[in-house]
Amino acid sequence: SCLGHKEFRFLLPILPLCLCIAGDLIAYELTSYSKRKTQLSKYKSVAGFSFLIIPNLLSVLYLGLVHQRGPLDTMTVLQHDTQSHKSNVLFLMPCHSTPYYSHIHKNVTMRFLTCEPNLQQKENYLDEADIFEQDPLNWLHQEYGNTSSTLKEQVRVSGMNRDPVNTSDFGEYIKLNNSSSKFSQSTYNDMPSHIVLFDVLKVKIENFLLEHHYQLCHEIFHAHIEDGRRSKYILIYCK
């Protein structure tokens, strides 16, 4: 295919034609089976059907019940763990990795990393998911505010006379300098109550999770085979 964006659903228009061809062959084999006189020819027909049916049946069971089942299990867990109007879920995963409100059925704030196409044809275009992958920790600091240790260091560099000793001191400093300080967090998003990610990302943002007191609440199986940004387990951190 010459298309830059490919999905399995693009093949659906030719599925009826394939089913017609396969059905015609199966009907022919079933009709001719009763006409075959030798036992050997009948065994060949049974072996042929077994070769077609058994591998496909095993594939359907594995791919339908085991492989990449994590997103559905994740939304089931979130449906029970979240509360309407109170919970805030952040998905740090490749965009559209999980279902969304169609499964959670609650008025819960949720956000995922977007991947809009480059409609304006910008050079070296990066969507939000790509930008996040380049430096996950920095992206989190920009979106949700610096951690206390990072902000403390920045305040020292800015020439502040005293050295704050705790997070509340930083808050007072920010309030007093809200109009001009580059540390103002007025544009930051609300801190999520749940963070969902593949376990391959854990090492990259572990400092953020620790400093904001997130704990691992659920570890959900996803797939036996890792696929780039998607790994074997989905982790749900919560406060």
Automatic annotation (TrEMBL):
This protein's UniProt keywords: Endoplasmic reticulum, Glycosyltransferase, Membrane, Transferase, Transmembrane, Transmembrane helix
Transmembrane segments: 12-31, 43-65
Enzyme Commission number(s): 2.4.1.-
One of the GO BP terms on file: GPI anchor biosynthetic process
Keyword Methyltransferase attached: no
Source taxon at top rank: Eukaryota
Pfam families reported for this sequence: Glyco_transf_22
RNA-binding found in the keyword field: no
One CC-aspect GO term: endoplasmic reticulum membrane
Signal peptide boundaries: none
InterPro entries: GPI_mannosylTrfase (IPR005599)
Protein name: Mannosyltransferase
Species the sequence originates in: Cherax quadricarinatus (Australian red claw crayfish)
Lineage: Eukaryota, Metazoa, Ecdysozoa, Arthropoda, Crustacea
